[in-house]
Amino acid sequence: MTKYIFVTGGVVSSVGKGITVASIGTLLKSRGLKVSVQKLDPYLNVDPATMSPYQHGEVFVTKDGAETDLDVGNYERFIDIELTTESDITSGQIYSAVIARERRGDFLGGTIQVIPHVTGEIKEHFKKIAVDSGADVVLVEVGGTVGDIECQPFLEAIRQMRNDIGRDNVLYLHVTLLPYIASTKELKTKPVQHSVNELRRMGIQPDIIACRADYPISDGIRDKISLFCDVERQAVIPLTTVSSVYEVPLVLEKEGIGNLVVQRLGLSAAAPELSCWQHIASCNDGCEQSVSIAVVGKYVELEDAYYSTREALRHAGLQHNRKIDISWVQADGLEKNNDIESKLRGVQGIVAPGGFGARGVDGVIRAAAYARENNIPYLGLCLGMQMMIVEFARFVLKSDKVHSAEFAADTPYPVIHLLSGQPAADSNGGVMRLGNYPCYLLPGTRVAQAYGEDVSIVLERHRHRFEFNNDYRQQLEEAGLVFSGFSPDGQLVEVCELSDHPWMVGCHFHAEFRSRPNRPHPLFCGLVGAAKNVMREGSQPTLPLD
Ligand code: GLN
Fold first, then answer.
1. Whose Cα sits closest to atom 7 in ligand 1?
2. Per the CB 3.0–4.6 Å rule, which of 42, 54, 109, 263 could disulfide with 144?
3. pLDDT at residue 127, as a whole number
4. Among the atoms of ligand 1, which is closest to the Cα of residue 381?
């Protein structure tokens, strides 16, 4: 029977709930248990696909093509699993499903209410993820903060689960904040007490309280929380801020949360095997030199908009023993050539991530030109690949009218276009190639070498509408663009590279989604490997390759 850990947040958002859930997942997996994770997002949007990245950060895409919250990416990276549509449920989805059933007449004229209909629909998803994944333990993270109006149906549903499946099969974990008062130099427990009271008001008594703080948490503070919140002292877990999120699993293990969960849920588990996390921590400590990488995007003011890209760079850095020094470069700020010089001079590598809409694409094209002309390693992800091709085609065809049909419908040279018969965007923004697709690698290419000689087919995550236009394949190939990977029928170009360049690679898929701290993505590794050979300062980096 599947057991559940329900995780709530108290006091403020951004307290590290997602990382805590992901870390507990990894601790349980390290004990030989099968784990799955579900995020409950209280907002009324059906999914984050059409939300502004400024509001929501990155949209993470699962293998089955769901557009989900960025926390799902953290679950995948930490636990090293692949999740599905069931891993991110929003209030919008719940209400839409209940209302659709009501319209179909499924309720036979009954009155539709939050309890039991909305909570019932939520609980169906708890059951579905357990059945689909066959997990021993499902971790369910309730988004938002206890006390938010939108969270209430979710809290009520998780409360009911204790009665539905039995006390021994359900554990409640509350992740909360101990604020620090600088004038008196102390951590205050009152907000924790209030947030636990708020949870109890909903009928939920936490079994474990994880307390995030920017300063060490004394025994006295733990005792006080234990006393006021009615939680055993060993179940008050200190979560002091650490320099890298990848230290959190080891910190939590040291604080005993792994054994506590196993014991409370009566799980039969092996001893934890955490050597891979110890290795990651030692790599992190060992990184003294750094590599400077510019990420040229349109939402760079909010790092969360490029969350997986930033993490994939860090993973590749760990592999190459380098800290990654990221400069976030606003794409639409690169409009003049002299801006390029001032913003990109001295960087050892450039990443152009994905994006939608015309703003900033000229800046990305200029960044690609700068990378090509100055032999700066470049990795283009989706839009970044499309603009790399547009830039190269402008150079080959000697016309700045070359463009993607997404941004210039009347261009005479649409090197990136919609396939004939491919439907245009509908009002929901839904007609996209989403999720895992296979890509056949061309042996001998730099990209194939990066994946490893024994790998010929890779599965990578997509989220785009436009494709490379095969009418230009031969001409660009003759000029030095190597098409290094294709869809199984050979029709879609999935990844390409420039032959006469140390590392200029573009992929139509989002390579960043499949990177893991212990298994960095080959294309990010290739970028960082080439970048570390570029001289750090000076306007003319020397040609690389060790
Ligand atoms: N806007 C482009 C397309 O739809 C690229 C999308 C992306 O970068 N994810 O094809």
1. 354
2. 42
3. 97
4. 8
Strand partners, 416: 404, 468
Calpha distance 70→282 (Å, rounded): 26
Cα distances (angstroms) measured from residue 494 to each of 125, 142, 200, 221, 510: 34, 36, 52, 55, 10
The C-alpha atoms of residue 414 and residue 396 are separated, in whole angstroms, by: 14
pTM for this structure?
A: 0.93
**Crossing angle of helices 307-319 and 522-531, rounded to 10°:** 60
User: Tokens in use for 493?
Assistant: 């170009």
The protein residue with its alpha carbon nearest to ligand 1, atom 6, reads: 464
Is residue 111 within 8 A of residue 120, CB to CB? The reply is: no
Burial of 344 (0-12, 13-18, 19+ CB in 10 A): buried
Q: Is 198 a catalytic residue?
A: no
Residues of the chain under the 70 pLDDT cut: 423-430, 537-546
User: How do beta strands 88-90 and 180-181 pair?
Assistant: unpaired
**Active-site choice (211, 229, 283, 382):** 382
> Ligand 1: which atom is nearest the Cα of residue 357?
1
Helix (H) or strand (E) holding 101: helix 91-104
What would the two tokens of residue 43 be? 């907002």
Q: Report pLDDT digits (tens) over 172-189.
A: 999 999 999 999 999 999
Ranges of H-type helices in 374-463: 383-397, 446-451
Atom of ligand 1 nearest to the CA of 416: 10
Does the active-site annotation cover 288? no
Taking residue 196's Cβ as centre, other Cβ atoms within 10 Å add up to: 24
Which residue owns the Cα nearest ligand 1 atom 1?
356
Tokens read off for 190: 């009152």
Active site residue 382: yes
DSSP string, 205-267: --SEEEEEESSPPPHHHHHHHHHHHT--GGGEEEEE--S-GGGHHHHHHHTTHHHHHHHHTT-
CA of 439 to the centre of ligand 1 (A): 18
The secondary structure of residue 114, as a DSSP letter, is I
Q: What is the pLDDT of residue 428?
A: 47
Tell me the best of 465, 467, 493, 513 to mutate to test the pocket of ligand 1, counting ligand atoms within 8 Å of each CB and taking the most.
465
The angle, 0 to 180 degrees and rounded to 10, between the axes of the packed helices 307-319 and 275-286 is 80
Report d(CA 7, CA 173) in Å as an integer: 5
Contact criterion met (CB below 8 Å) for 130 and 170 = no
| Torsion angle (degrees, nearest 10) of CA 238, 243, 248, 252 | -30
Ligand 1 contact, 298 CB (< 6 A): no
What is the pLDDT at residue 419?
87
Residue whose token pair is 């994944």: 133
